[in-house]
Amino acid sequence: MSVYYVNGDFVDAADAAIPASDLALLRGYGIFDFLRTYGGKPFQLGAHLRRLITSAALLDLHCPWDIEELDEIVMETLGRNNFDESGIRLIVTGGDSPNGFMPAGESRLLVMVTPAQAMAARYYEHGADVVTVEMRRDMPEAKTINYIPGISAHKQALKINRDAVEAIYTVDGKVVEGTRSNTFIFKDGTWITPASDLLQGVTRAEVIKLISADGRLELREIGRAEYRNADEVILTSSSKEVMPVVNVDNVPIGDGAPGENTRKLMRAWRRMTERYAATDGYV
Q: What was the pLDDT predicted at 175?
């Protein structure tokens, strides 16, 4: 059984709880971040913690823990579990409120460590399907616990394609990101990814480094038509890593199979994470 950190205590997952009076439950006021390990080491922990603190600032959510404290708590929680590879979820809640509405600066911190869940191999061997959904998220740069838009978007996507692994937000016809991922297209020898109005994914940032080291990259708007007509499409996230997309809105991408540039990038990602797993420390 997993051991979680809950506001100062380490408890079995089955016993982990927060009061029903917490604003995370009453008003959906809270933030989170998620990462995974390679070789048992949290991947880009510092970047994830910085993003957590940034999310708190964007929501004006009291976050009294600095990066060093959060780092120690994560590593202690990870050490109390014994999984080959782990998923690590940090949550900062709004805490209790005297009137059930306005926060009183009593935020709670949870760190949840669970076995890493691998996506089905077929997505990487044969590619995944996605569906674009016109929907605008509030404060997309913050990773909040409000996933109502994401759930709604994915439900819409499944009505169009029951095999869709992701819904892709579009705003005024421009592709932005997935509900739980970032996205790139490959067209005419160049990788392209949206530049703004999205969550700055940590995996996305690492993929940008890989592309920049050995290819051409543009950060700019992508229209829905351009997205559907790309030579290749990928999703990136902590859980999906680099996932090929072969179908957008029931339209095949390329020849309907993961392209050679995508496979090259997937191999580069695997080599990088294997090197990371083999190091003595973590970033």
A: 98
Strand partners, 108: 93
User: Which residues carry out catalysis?
Assistant: 143
* Stretches in the chain below the pLDDT threshold 50: 282-283
Q: Which of 270, 266, 268, 249 is nearest to 258 (CA)?
A: 266
Determine if the pTM surpasses 0.90. yes
User: Environment class of residue 137 by beta-carbon count within 10 Å: exposed (0-12), middle (13-18) or buried (19+)?
Assistant: buried
Residue indicated by tokens 């394609």? 161
d(CA 160, CA 191): 27
Half-sphere exposure of 227 (CA within 13 A, CB side): 30
φ, ψ at 243 (rounded to 5°):
-115, 125
Nearest to 182 by CA among 215, 216, 211, 214: 211
